[in-house]
């Protein structure tokens, strides 16, 4: 049987240099190689007559070489090559650049197949830098050709050949991962044919069947895994039934502001969960600034006053510290003790906090990943709140939950995910959405501008900062040239030098990026929050939750490089105080998609509307930015394009799990293996 974990270096055509390039693409094994699916296809199978070609389009032409290839050298290193070809309808001039070797490959009087882009000037048809084959061969023409995402120094021909060699090596020996009854019922292609046809389809009908099969596998394994997780949660022994006499309204009525209807509705859901003996597993979605934290505080009050402790897990130290301040301000008046546990504390202070937590003297412990460590022992943990769920995995959630006896779990995220999608992605959680903003939230005026407005933007920043405000400038990169496609982008460190020493030399300018040490990041963010830094140049590391009410300008460089959901998150960093706030999107390139995306950002301020549009324009692969930790990675499924299939597969998964919760029946054994392989390495499932 074929070993799919075999190192890719053993595949024919992969030498030491190419191994490194493939590893850059996350291809390490034979399995990674054959599941590295094309991003697009070119149909080079249809032959077009020269009389029917149109300017600017790509075609496959079958024609005879009327001349030898004429090579002309411009200098020692540069040349261009010309050839005249003719079919039975017209003639055409073929040109190549710096490819003198074509002279040896093409013979006068012989027939060839050419594929490339046509230009028509003054009635003369030209074919520019085409690929070509002799009539007997179909290596580069005469068929559907896959196009793959690439990295530096790896050509389409290279990767195609390596993948073809990988598929030959597999030799139709891939084990079938679906039960026969599903293959028959859904009329699915077998796994070996689907793998071959997704890379090298004989026709588009075969491609569609192959894609349908592979998408089905991905979606079904995810749905079965999530349902199994949900089952495990609901099968657990009784959870905590909180005291019905502890009223959330005691805190709500004392707050210095009124909660929105949406917040009150969500608290009703949470209160019902907490008074039920089944453990709560709830996802709380809310747009940036919608007031999720205060909802978690009210839930924490009920837990503590019912005799339990609360753990609040935040993704960064500065966010943990911000939560500590907010929780203390709101809850200390009720005799509730809040403490923080973060990296960088002195050993003595840490010991004191841990001791108090274990003795039950701390009611609410707020911290970063430090909360997951083994030496953190609670006396009576009843509620776990995780902030920004996508920064933590399902495993990490399970780890902290294990510190209590089936505690309730509240998962919060400001990453807006369309509801239909959230129900599917977070299948192991119930979902609540805060879909309105507090009345005091300022709308952030958003403008999309091209590079030529740079000076005006800089003057606007100066004006705002001179009036006492602060500004963020966000870039997509840390250092110039991180990969070939980003060489023209402004890096944080480079832009910082320019802005600090030239453009904004009269102001305090600092920079921040993800490669810095946590301690340094937190120090800079704290200084910015305290108003000691006027202009902060940063990567998206500032995206999550820190409140700087005095910041009124968010400028995003190369905005076309970010997802809409991410741009919306970044925009949410301003408009958090009493001042009018602005988001300026500086973009390059004028493609239709770029224009549509910028227009969406200037018109929409609802995160869920923006998320739907983002998913529609970019597909699910890029939608989440960083992959959803704890969920299988989609290599081919697109959650927008495949929404109907997703719903169909979800119903099927529910039916299968209802009949066979642990997938123990003989017929479902392949499914058990599929779920284990795709899911359990990322989530702790006992299936």
**Mean pLDDT across all residues, rounded?**
85
N- and C-termini, Cα separation = 25 Å
Share of helical residues: 25-40%
CATH fourth-tier homologous superfamily of the domain at 444-604: P-loop containing nucleotide triphosphate hydrolases
Multimeric state: single chain
CATH architectural designation of the domain at 444-604? 3-Layer(aba) Sandwich
Q: Main sheet: which strands, in order across?
A: 11-12-10-13-14-9-15
Please identify the top-level CATH class of the domain at 444-604.
Alpha Beta
Largest sheet: 7 strands, parallel
Radius of gyration: 29 Å
Number of strands: 21
What does this molecule look like?
The protein is α/β, with parallel strands linked by helices. Among the domains are: 66 residues, DNA polymerase, domain 1; 97 residues, Nucleic acid-binding proteins (OB fold (Dihydrolipoamide Acetyltransferase, E2P), Beta Barrel); 151 residues, Rossmann fold, CATH 3.40.50.300; 161 residues, 3-Layer(aba) Sandwich (Rossmann fold), CATH 3.40.50. It contains 23 helices and 21 strands. It has a seven-stranded parallel sheet, sandwiched between helices. A hairpin with a 5-residue loop joins β3 and β4. α6 crosses α7 and α19 runs antiparallel to α20. It starts with 15 loop residues before the first helix and ends in a 7-residue tail after the last helix.
């Amino acid at each position: 049987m074929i070993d799919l974990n075999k190192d890719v270096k053993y595949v024919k055509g992969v030498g030491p240099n190419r191994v490194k390039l493939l590893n850059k693409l996350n291809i390490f094994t034979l399995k990674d190689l054959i599941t590295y699916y094309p991003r697009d296809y070119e149909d080079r199978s249809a032959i077009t007559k020269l009389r029917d070609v149109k300017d600017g389009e790509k075609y496959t032409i079958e024609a005879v070489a009327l001349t030898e290839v004429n090579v002309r050298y411009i200098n020692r290193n540069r040349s261009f090559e010309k050839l005249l070809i003719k079919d039975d309808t017209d003639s055409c001039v073929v040109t190549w650049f710096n490819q003198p070797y074509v002279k040896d490959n093409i013979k006068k009087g012989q027939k060839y197949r050419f594929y490339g882009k046509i230009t028509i000037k003054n009635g003369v048809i030209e074919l520019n830098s085409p690929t070509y084959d002799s009539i007997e061969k179909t290596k580069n023409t005469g068929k559907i050709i896959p196009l793959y995402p690439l990295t530096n120094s790896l050509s389409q021909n290279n990767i195609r050949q390596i993948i073809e060699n990988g598929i030959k090596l597999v030799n139709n020996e891939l084990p079938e991962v679906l039960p026969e009854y599903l293959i028959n019922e859904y009329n699915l292609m077998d796994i070996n044919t689907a793998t071959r046809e997704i890379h090298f389809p004989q026709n588009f009908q075969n491609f569609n069947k192959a894609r349908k099969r592979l998408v089905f596998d991905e979606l079904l394994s995810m749905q079965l895994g999530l349902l199994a997780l949900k089952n495990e949660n609901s099968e657990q022994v009784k959870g905590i039934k909180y005291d019905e006499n502890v009223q959330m309204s005691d805190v709500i009525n004392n707050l210095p502001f009124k909660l929105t209807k949406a917040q009150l509705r969500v608290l009703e859901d949470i209160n019902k969960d907490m008074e039920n003996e089944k453990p709560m597993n709830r996802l709380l979605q809310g747009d940036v600034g919608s007031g999720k934290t205060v909802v978690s505080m009210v839930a924490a009050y009920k837990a503590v006053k019912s005799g339990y402790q609360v753990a609040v897990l935040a993704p960064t130290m500065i966010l943990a510290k911000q939560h500590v301040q907010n929780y203390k301000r709101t809850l200390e008046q009720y005799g509730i003790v809040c403490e923080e546990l973060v990296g960088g504390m002195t050993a003595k202070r840490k010991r004191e906090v841990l001791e108090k937590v274990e003795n039950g003297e701390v009611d609410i412990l707020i911290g970063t990943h430090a909360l997951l460590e083994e030496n953190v022992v609670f006396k009576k943990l009843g509620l776990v709140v995780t902030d920004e769920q996508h920064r933590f995995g399902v495993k990490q959630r399970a780890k902290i939950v294990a510190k209590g006896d089936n505690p309730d779990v509240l998962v919060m995220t400001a990453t807006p995910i369309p509801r239909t999608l959230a129900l599917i992605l977070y299948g192991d959680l119930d979902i609540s959405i805060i879909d309105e903003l507090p009345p005091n939230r300022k709308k952030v005026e958003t403008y999309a501008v091209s590079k030529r407005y740079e000076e005006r933007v800089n003057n606007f920043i100066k004006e705002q900062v001179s009036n006492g405000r602060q500004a963020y400038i966000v870039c997509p990169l840390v250092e110039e040239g991180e990969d070939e496609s980003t060489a023209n982008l402004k890096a944080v460190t480079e832009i910082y030098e320019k802005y600090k020493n030239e453009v904004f030399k009269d102001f305090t300018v600092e920079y921040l990026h993800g490669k810095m040490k946590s301690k340094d990041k937190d120090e800079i963010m704290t200084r910015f929050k305290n108003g000691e830094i006027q202009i902060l140049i940063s990567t998206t590391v500032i995206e999550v939750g820190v409140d700087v009410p005095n910041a009124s300008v968010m400028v995003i460089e190369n905005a076309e490089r970010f997802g809409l959901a991410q741009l919306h998150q970044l925009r949410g960093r301003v408009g958090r105080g009493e001042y009018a706030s602005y988001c300026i999107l500086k973009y390059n390139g004028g493609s239709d998609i770029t224009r549509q995306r910028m227009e969406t950002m200037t018109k929409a301020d609802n995160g869920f509307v923006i998320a739907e549009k983002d998913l529609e324009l970019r597909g699910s692969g890029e939608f989440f930015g960083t992959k959803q930790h704890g969920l299988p990675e989609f290599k081919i499924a697109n959650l927008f394009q495949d929404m109907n299939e997703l719903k169909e597969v979800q119903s099927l998964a529910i039916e299968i799990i209802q009949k066979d919760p642990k997938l123990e029946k003989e017929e479902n054994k392949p499914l058990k293996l599929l779920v284990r392989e795709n899911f359990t390495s990322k989530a702790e499932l006992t299936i």
